[in-house]
């Protein structure tokens, strides 16, 4: 069993507190992604799980055993680093065999395991090469192979793809997914790329400033973000936010002088909705004058399959609408905007989301 | 029109590139000549007799000025084989200790967070600013107390102390640039801190170790001061001290001096060749990104 439990885990570097009490339960075989903006403590948390940073408060429990004071090598983990961290003076085979050789493993066993890992990752032809004779993608594969060879209970990845170019990143992402399907080992993966998080994760842990903001499946986070931060972080392009005025006791809202917009949320006593959020893909474009209000298109980004329109209607933050690839609008055109009520997210002054009533039925 | 102008510009650019190149090479060549000239002069004159040295110091040895008398004196008088052995033992041992202790101290300073880290670092490199010769009297007293006078160990210890500050300084700076990930990876792989140092860090810093070795080697090999004070006995004489026997108060046996100096260059060249083989740039490339 290799369940991983974090109990009120804290980290401070001297006076500077970096992780403020994280509770987390990761089941055996799960693929969990830690995501969050730069400096939020993802790497620190991962390194604490690995045993590379001391834990200054709380417990890290792997397979039912508290491992706070156990050295990394005895935790049953393997880690893949952002910078690959290959041993430059050893060839690919030597890199992959290093940990096993050090552990005094049998030569035949080492050979078999290295060959198997090389086969999984397509590295058979490169075993005699030195790291400097490899491309970035190959190096990353060796780094992953080195982790596989150790046959760990838990894989830890710290932004393993961020040094690769976009195309290779997509390819390696798929390979890591297939690796997980094949090995069925627990994997914890750190990234600040929300696309990687969405595509890889069974569950995503959104972190901010050393605290967990929300834990859930990718679609849970997409459809039911629990606060404004998660809503803004998950999804690309970002969710649009508009300050609004509640009317009719908060059953409906109004943006400036627009027509009232219906809501489908549970009201909470004491909380007043002050902001709505709507994803670019949920805004509908209509003839001017027929929507809740009108806006002027000022930037048109054509990606081929889809088009992002930046619309200006006198508010501060950018407002993006996702439209068809073939949409005929140009910059300067006036459009009407419709916000379908069941797609709206509502937040109070603290940024806490209101629970939706209709959406479950509609979007699952 | 524009075409002509642009090719003209290109030609001018090429010409400028060529002239700067020529200038750079002239300067480098000049510097090389200046640096090598004394060495050549020593070697040339070591093959001349006394009269040849004085009558035509810059001339090539030929005819009646050619003579091996210097080398003959060196090989028959005194015990130059011992002096050479002493010099080599002292230099190599001190270098080994400087590199080992320096790299270990640098690793600790760069890798571990502990209180007084900065203070300790400053303490270790303070020696750069304070010449060790200022402490000669105290060192001599210490060596007398330890019964180490007239032993090679005394020299080895002093030279290690002399070389460590610069070594620690250079190596610490370099070690700070080493990727943290690779050491962490070794930790996850189950290596002890010592093995991380010897099996992961040392291979990564080999080029810098070689640089430090070359820098530390020359002052040790050439030193006259400490051998004179700490180890002037015949069994512990080093080459530089051995040469002194040809420099009398009234007469100097120049042929012998120059011959012994010429021979003394050889081991240094050998050591340099050994280290420069290690100075292969880019040994770390491919370890981490890029
Ligand atoms: N050795 C240290 N001493 C003091 N503060 C540190 C130390 N290491 C990290 N921190 C702080 O801890 C916080 C979290 O760092 P961490 O590296 O975990 O961020 P991250 O989420 O991985 O960011 P990124 O996406 O940029 O990698 C940062 O604010 C950082 O400044
Ligand atoms: Mg990080």
UniProtKB/TrEMBL annotation, chain A:
Keywords: ATP-binding, Nucleotide-binding, Transport
One MF annotation (Gene Ontology) recorded for this entry: ABC-type maltose transporter activity
Residues passing through the membrane, by range: none
Listed GO CC annotations: ATP-binding cassette (ABC) transporter complex, substrate-binding subunit-containing; maltose transport complex
Residue ranges the record marks as coiled coil: none
Domain called ABC transporter: residue spans: 4-234
Family affiliation: Belongs to the ABC transporter superfamily.
Protein's recorded name: sn-glycerol-3-phosphate ABC transporter ATP-binding protein UgpC
Organism (species): Rhodophyticola porphyridii
Automatic annotation (TrEMBL), chain B:
GO term, biological process aspect, one: transmembrane transport
Segments passing through the bilayer: 22-44, 83-106, 118-140, 152-175, 196-221, 254-275
Gene3D superfamilies: MetI-like
Keyword entries, A-Z: Cell membrane, Membrane, Transmembrane, Transmembrane helix, Transport
Taxonomic source organism: Rhodophyticola porphyridii
Pfam family, one: BPD_transp_1
Protein name per the record: Carbohydrate ABC transporter permease
Family the UniProt entry places it in: Belongs to the binding-protein-dependent transport system permease family.
UniProt entry tagged with the keyword Transport: yes
Ranges in a coiled coil: none
SUPFAM superfamilies attached to this UniProt entry: MetI-like (SSF161098)
Cellular component annotations (GO), alphabetically ordered: plasma membrane
Keyword Metal-binding set for record: no
Topology relative to the membrane: Multi-pass membrane protein
């Amino acid at each position: 069993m290799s369940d991983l439990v974090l109990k009120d885990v804290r980290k401070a570097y001297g006076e500077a507190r970096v992780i403020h009490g994280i509770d987390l339960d990761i089941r055996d075989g799960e693929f969990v992604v830690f995501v969050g903006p730069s400096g939020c403590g993802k790497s620190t948390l991962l390194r604490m799980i690995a045993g590379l940073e001391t834990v200054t408060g709380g417990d890290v429990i792997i397979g039912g055993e508290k491992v706070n004071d156990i050295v990394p090598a005895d935790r049953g983990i393997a880690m893949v680093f952002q910078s690959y961290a290959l041993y430059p003076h050893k060839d690919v085979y030597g890199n992959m065999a290093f940990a096993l050789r050090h552990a005094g493993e049998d030569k035949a066993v080492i050979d078999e395991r290295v060959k198997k890992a090389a086969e999984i990752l397509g590295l058979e032809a490169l075993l005699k090469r030195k790291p400097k004779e490899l491309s970035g993608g190959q190096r990353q594969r060796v780094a992953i192979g080195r982790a596989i060879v150790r046959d760990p209970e838990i894989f830890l990845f710290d932004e393993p793809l961020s040094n690769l170019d976009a195309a290779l990143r997509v390819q390696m992402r798929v390979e890591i997914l297939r690796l997980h399907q094949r090995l069925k080992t627990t994997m914890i993966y750190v990234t600040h790329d929300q696309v990687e998080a969405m595509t890889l994760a069974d569950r995503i842990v959104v972190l901010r400033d050393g605290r967990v903001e929300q834990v859930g499946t990718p679609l849970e986070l997409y459809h039911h973000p629990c606060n404004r931060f998660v809503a803004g972080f998950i999804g690309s392009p970002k969710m649009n936010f508009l300050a609004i005025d509640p009317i009719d006791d908060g059953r409906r809202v109004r943006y400036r002088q627009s027509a009232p917009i219906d809501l489908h949320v549970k009201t909470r006593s004491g909380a007043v909705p002050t902001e709505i959020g709507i994803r670019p893909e949920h805004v509908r474009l209509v003839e001017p004058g027929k929507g809740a209000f009108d806006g002027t298109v000022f930037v048109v980004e054509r990606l081929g399959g889809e088009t992002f329109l930046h619309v200006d209607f006198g508010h501060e933050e950018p407002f993006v609408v996702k439209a068809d690839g073939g949409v005929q609008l140009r910059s300067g055109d006036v459009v009407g905007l419709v916000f379908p009520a069941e797609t709206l997210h509502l937040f109070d002054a603290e940024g806490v989301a209101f629970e939706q009533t209709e959406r479950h039925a509609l979007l699952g | 029109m524009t075409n002509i102008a642009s090719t003209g510009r290109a030609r001018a650019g090429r010409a400028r590139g060529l002239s700067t190149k020529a200038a750079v090479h002239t300067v480098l060549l000049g510097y090389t000549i200046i640096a090598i000239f004394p060495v050549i002069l020593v070697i040339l004159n070591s093959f001349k007799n006394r009269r040849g040295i004085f009558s035509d110091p810059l001339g090539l040895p030929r005819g009646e000025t050619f003579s091996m008398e210097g080398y003959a004196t060196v090989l028959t008088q005194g015990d130059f084989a011992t002096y050479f052995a002493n010099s080599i033992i002292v230099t190599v041992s001190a270098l080994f200790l400087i590199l080992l202790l320096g790299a270990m101290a640098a690793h600790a300073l760069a890798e571990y967070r502990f209180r007084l880290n900065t203070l300790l670092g400053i303490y270790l490199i303070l020696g750069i600013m304070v010449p060790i010769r200022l402490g000669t009297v105290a060192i001599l007293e210490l060596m007398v107390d330890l019964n180490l006078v007239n032993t090679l160990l005394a020299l080895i210890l002093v030279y290690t102390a002399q070389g460590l500050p610069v070594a620690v300084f250079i190596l610490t700076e370099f070690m700070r640039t080493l990727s943290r990930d690779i050491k962490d990876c070794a930790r996850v792989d189950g290596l002890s801190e010592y093995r991380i140092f010897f099996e992961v860090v040392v291979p990564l810093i080999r080029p810098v170790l070689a640089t430090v070795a070359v820098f530390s080697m020359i002052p040790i090999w050439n030193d006259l001061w400490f051998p004179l004070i700490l180890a002037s006995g015949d069994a512990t004489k080093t080459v530089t001290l051995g040469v002194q026997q040809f420099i009398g108060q009234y007469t100097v046996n120049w042929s012998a001096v120059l011959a012994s100096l010429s021979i003394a260059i050889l081991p240094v060249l050998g050591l340099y060749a050994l280290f420069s083989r290690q100075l292969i740039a880019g040994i770390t490339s491919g370890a981490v990104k890029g």
